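BUG-684 | component: ligand-complex export | severity: low

The export step for adenosine-5'-diphosphate jobs runs without errors, but we want the raw record kept on the ticket for reference. Input record follows.
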Amino acid sequence: MADLNTDVRYLKGIGEKKALALNKLGVFSLYDLISFFPRKYEDRSRFTPIASAMDGESVCIQALAADNPRLSHIRRGMDLVKLRAVDDSGSVDITFFNQPYAKENIRRGESYNFFGRIEFKGGRRSMVNPVYEPGDRAGMVTGRIVPVYRLSAGLNQRSIMQAVRQALDDCLDSLPDVLPEDVRLRCRLSQARYAYKNIHFPPDFEALELARRRLIFEELFVLSCALGRMHRRRSDDEGIRLRPLDLEQFWSSLPFRPTAAQLRAVSQAAEDMCSGGVMNRLVQGDVGSGKTLVAAALIWLCAENGYMSAFMAPTEILAQQHYDTLSSMLSPFGLKVGRLTGSLGAKEKRQVKAQLQQGRLDLVVGTHALFSQDVEYDKLALVVTDEQHRFGVNQRSALINKGSRPHVLVMSATPIPRTLALIIYGDLDISVIDQLPPGRQKVDTFAVDESYRARLNSFIRKQVREGRQVFVVCPMVEENEELNIKLKSAQEHAAQLSALFPDLKVACIHGKMKAKDKEATMAAFVSGEIQILVSTTVIEVGVDVPNASLMIVENADRFGLSQLHQLRGRVGRGKHKSYCVLVSNNDSPEVKARLNIMCKTGDGFKISEEDLRLRGPGDFFGSRQHGLPEMHVADLGADVNVLQLAQEESRRLLENDPQLELPEHRALRQRVDKLYEANSAGFN
Ligand code: ADP
Ligand code: MG
């Protein structure tokens, strides 16, 4: 007897070749097969009287074969079977190409269901190659809502459909429900058996909707449980318990007051670190919202408690900038700050490592060099990583594993809609800095087309004459890009600007350069040697060039809004009035609407919500860099309400059974474990 784990080869009609074709689609067991949901559905549930079928309409008809099908060979390798079918209202000419067996299958005087496209030819209705079933045994591919599956070579819709039907017949009864009864009832969801059956073969659209809703919930619930359990494991760990201190001592040393949002983030984090558990917190704040200061306050708290901190930045330049800023904030308290980056000489590296091992530093700022194997820490209590999206989840954990369970603070400037953040960072608590320091000037933003080129060039000239610097960003040109789209490559564009401004220093950073050369060029821009920097998006990360006042984005329609917002954040960081110009020759209304959002608002969260609405979650989940599993039915952008519900329910469940050990959670636990297995690379 077959069960859910049985190989698909077991099924009638699935031989070696079809089995391999199914394997290609990720389907190995009967369970995989019943979880292989249709891509879409075709509504063949209503029958249309022949006489009311319109030209070009796809319809299901119930009709009698009015004559015996006639087979003819029109030329070599081309057979035709023709017949006429009638119902009470009229008649239709039916033709089959290269289906000689239709002649045997269809008999005069018998009733059949046909599904196909009606065409009017010479005043008569005709149908070519319809799907058909005998009227007394109909109900598989006509007269109902029919599933449409993703295919691979060697499979057709009918063979998948038959296989799924068999699998459902054989093992639906043994399908366990991963949703606990109380969750299912509270959320008004259908049972597993009902859902798995009706997602494939729904009798009507209501049943389909009930099935879909349940399966979307199930998928998001399993994901939430997996992330929630992981989170709990970590925060249940015993962590370094710090003594709470009055942070006013630190705040009063600054030339300005922290914003309410900064204060809130710091107190949330400080509470974690004084709780006895391990902190895993994400601080999300728009560019310029002052995240560094939040980190500084917490580093100070650790140092006053006798512990050290490590601060990791994604590039050398950023590490250097953070080193300077943090040193100046912390040195008034006599704290010792060190630096460890790849470019240091061997001797200096050795010195810093010795200092770390002996606990003679309060803070070390660096790049990934911080977690190379030979670096050991004494009394490491806090690990801060900046610009998280630049590090893989794995890199983050490499640093966490240094020392004995340090607290972790992740800082990100990519505003992500809250619901998505809950998934991407499901293992982290989140603090949001939703406020900019006072007196920040808005970056004036304009969307223009090529006809503004001359004016744009004189604007560049004007800014540089006033002593400012200019960023120009071009989209990355993909190797396989269609050639008919004219994109500005960074190098070409830099050459044009050089020719146009022979007296200025124009430089270019592009993807093919070595990291070291990129950094050197960037450093020259930071120091003011270069006036115009043309680049691909490599400058997205938070480098501070307060003197830069103009950001020009070429082919701006090629960027997501969140990305444009990041880019814009590179200017307006100093005291100078700053501008962002989005150049695009694409005049489709959607593109215009998108770019207009940029001109209207400077709020990164609002922009990310819009981005999600307009482009879906792809930009946020892009290259699976977050280590999230692929979703089968759920759409993380669209199913936000269900996601929230699933998260609430998973939290409630884990409250009672943190490790999913209760017997009634066995099926759920198996699914969660399976999800871990399939994603172990990204999840740990
Ligand atoms: P980001 O969140 O992008 O990392 P930074 O930490 O680099 O932002 O801060 C941006 C600038 O704002 C810095 O020059 C910093 O000194 C300044 N800043 C931070 N907090 C405040 C505040 N509360 N009041 C005034 N200026 C602040
Ligand atoms: Mg920053």
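Assignee comment: Attached the raw record above. The chain has five domains: 8-37+162-204, 46-143, 215-236+630-678, 248-275+290-412, 443-601.
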